[in-house]
Design a protein that fits this description.
mainly alpha, 12 helices, 0% strand, RteC protein, Tet_reg_excision_RteC
Amino acid sequence: MTEYFKKISDELDEEIKELAYEQGNVLASYEKAIELILSKTTELKEYVLKTGFENEQEEIHFFKYQKPAIIAQLIYYNAIYKIEARKPYGTKSIRKYLNKELKKLKRFFDNNLDFYKYYRSNNSFLDENFFVRGKHDIKLWLDTYYFQSDQTFSTSHDYKVAKIIANDLIQVYIEDQLYSKTQDSKSVATQKLNWTGSKTAMIELIYALNCQGVFDNGNSDIRLIAQYFENTFNIELGNFYQTFLELRTRKINRTKFLDELRDGLLKKMDEQDEK
C-alpha cells in the first residue's frame, strides 16, 4: 500500500506543479487541480477496494495519514477556488472578507478542539474507532458527513484529519494574501508624488490653506507647512516669503493659481452634469 500511495502522491504533486506553470488563469488552474485530485482519489479508492489491507494497522495508517493527505489537497484547492471567486473589490473590503474566512477556520478549530488535541498529540488509543472502517463510535466527535459518505472507503474521522491539514494550508494562504494587501497599502502610502506645477503656484496654495486655518486649527507656522509640502511633493520652494511678497504686489490677478483651480473644478462639474 505504501509504495502505491507514494506513486499516486508523487504523480499528483508533479501534475499540479506542471499545471501551475502552464495555466495563466488562477481559477482555471484551481479547477484543473480539483479534477486531477478527484481522478487520483478514484484510482486510490479502486486500488484499496480491490487489494484491501494486510492488517488493521495498515488500514489505520492509510486512513489516518495517507488518504487525508490527498483529500486535504482537494479541500484546500476547493476552498481557495471559492475564496478567489467570491473575493470583492477594494483593499478594505478584501481584508474584511479574508478575515471573515479566517474566522471560519477558527470556528472549526473551536468546534473540534478535543480531536485536534488527540491528533496533534499523535495519540493512538482511539485509532481503532477513528480509522478503521465500520468501527465508529457515535459518542466520539462524529460528523453527520460520515453517515453520507461511502463507508467502504471512509472511516469516522479520516475526513476530519484531512480538514485539519487543509485548514492549516488555507490559513497560510489567507494570511499571505492579507500580508500582500498590507504591503501593497504601505507601498501606495509611502510612494512619493512629485509637484509638477510652478513653485509660485504651490506657495499661493500654501498661504491660502494657512489663512483658512486647515492645519492644526490654524496654529501651524507657515514655515512648517512649507517644509511639509517640500518633503511630501519633492520640491524646493526657496525663499517663499519673497515669492509671497511678489504675489502681493501683483497689479492684476494676485490669486491666479487659486482662480484656475476654481475654474477648472467648476468646468469639470459642469461637464459631469451634462452627461
